[in-house]
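quick one
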Amino acid sequence: MAEELTLDPTADKAAQYRTLLPQIEALVGGEEDLTANLANIAAALKYGMGFFWVGFYLVKGDTLVLGPFQGPIACTRIRKGKGVCGTVWENGNALVVPNVDEFPGHIACSSASKSEIVLPAFQDGTVKLILDVDSDSLSAFDSIDEQYLGQLMKLIEGLL
Ligand code: SME
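structure w/ methionine sulfoxide:
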């Protein structure tokens, strides 16, 4: 496994994702432990893309429980249908939130977080975990993030 990511911060966002995703694939390729892989994916996304907060919430019974993440400390448990993460779990669709203050029921783990994108990963047709990426800027996420992070969720589904 390479110990450092090769990145070009001057490239546009799509190009950065295209550079990063194959490296993430290689990073998790030789490891079968889910926690280890999610931890490295969170770090690769945070430092590869410069996001404010990147982390996973895992479905455990009737609650999402905080998993591997990078960034400031965060809420540990989220109920189904609550906040952006709980809504994505309930509906099974990715959500891009340009302004978290305008999302009804948004759970503010950090007041610095201004926009976010949340995507689900499925196993046997059921949401097993979600990826939450937060930015300290408004409107930081768009269809490019949805496209490439969607590809990442397919990769993660292969690890479940
Ligand atoms: N804002 C999220 C909660 C998780 S934190 O942002 C890390 C939500 O509303 O679901």
